[in-house]
Amino acid sequence: TTLAKIGNHPIGDIMTKTPLTIRAYYTIQDSLLVMQSKKVGALPVIDDNGILKGILSTRDLLRAFVSVMNIDEPGTLLCIVVKDQKGQMKKIVDIIAEENISLGSVLVARHWDSDKRAIFPYLLTNNVIGVKKKLLAIGFELIDPMQWHLDQLPKTEC
After folding, report:
1. Between residues 69 and 40, which one has the greater pLDDT?
2. Largest CA distance in the chain
3. How far from chain centre, in Å, is Cα 110?
4. pTM metric for this prediction
5. Do domains 2-67 and 71-152 have the same CATH topology?
6. Distance from C-alpha of 25 to C-alpha of 78, rounded to nearest angstrom
7. Helices (H) and strands (E) in the chain, counts
8. If you classify domain 71-152 with CATH, what class do you get?
9. For 123-148, what is each residue's pLDDT tens digit?
10. Per-residue pLDDT averaged across 49-70, rounded?
11. What is 2-67's CATH topology?
């Protein structure tokens, strides 16, 4: 086991002398991108003087993301594929408002296809049939967000 291999070595011989760190002013996005690119699950947070202020984990970032996106309230995430042109978001928001539904948050994937983008509104309701029908009626494409995510995962042999 790993513990058996390192058990007789001083901690100073094993630990990284200058670990990767992030600054206290980093945004959620900055921190997520560093963790993803470096393939780490937690990072020490330091101030401008190099003093440790805490440890930020992917769990902390997930909690912050849930809070910022307001997805801790019951609701439904839609994925709407639209042409990459002005006015598309207004059409979507108008339909949501017509149905008297509150909007929790919106994410936009700007680089979907060459001439399209995906809009992910989080609607604070589970009754989205009316919204879906109206979106389809004006020519928008709807995709199940979870199925889309599963389709993006690497394929493995069984």
Report:
1. 40
2. 69
3. 14
4. 0.71
5. no
6. 32
7. 7, 8
8. alpha beta
9. 999 999 999 999 999 999 999 988 87
10. 90
11. CBS-domain (3.10.580)
CA atoms within 13 A on the CB side of 124: 12
| Start-to-end CA span in the chain (Å) | 28
Domain range annotation of the chain: 2-67, 71-152
Q: CA 46, CA 2: separation in Å to the nearest integer?
A: 29
Length of the chain as a residue count: 158
Confidence of residue 158 (pLDDT cuts 50, 70, 90): low
- Whether 84 and 116 have beta carbons less than 8 Å apart is answered as yes
Which secondary structure element, helix H or strand E, spans residue 89, and what is its range? Answer: helix 88-98
pLDDT digits (tens, 9 = 90+) for 4-59: 777 777 777 777 888 899 999 999 889 999 999 999 999 999 999 999 999 999 99
What is the bridge-based pairing of β-strands 116-123 and 103-113? antiparallel
Question: Quick one: CA dihedral 58, 64, 65, 67, positive or negative?
Answer: positive
Return the pLDDT at 129. 97
Type and span of the H or E element at 146? helix 145-152
Which amino acid would we find at residue 147?
Answer: Q
